[in-house]
Amino acid sequence: MSRRLARETALQVLFERDLTKEPPNTAEIVERWATEFVIPEPSKIFAQELVDGTIAHQDEIDQTIASIAQDWTLSRMANVDRNVMRLATYEILFCPDIPGRVSLNEAIELAKRFGGEESAKFVNGILDRVVANVSKVERKESINK
Predict the structure, then answer these.
(1) What pLDDT does 20 receive?
(2) What is the count of structural domains for the chain?
């Protein structure tokens, strides 16, 4: 399974959803992008999980990003950057089986490939703080147990 292809597919779906502002049938859109990228079934399943999870937790994800992105509202961010960060923040907050640094590194690669010239730096700066904040909470919770 290629998790990178799954993330690329999930990003395409989230980006499309963000642009159209319509509640899409994500399964159809994932299928269309999976066909376009020719990704294997396990990667398609992972892409669908990422899309569904990101959408289900979007309010919390957006609040997390907004609280860290000083002087940047989500609406001011480039669509690609915003959706790369949403996807990675979902992984960081809700996928404990994926190390936060892996999600961060994958997001940087997505930003380099699909974003603008400064996207990777911007995404890195915000997501690094998301990972650090989650690590602090996890350390605090393990101490209190």
Answers:
(1) 84
(2) 2
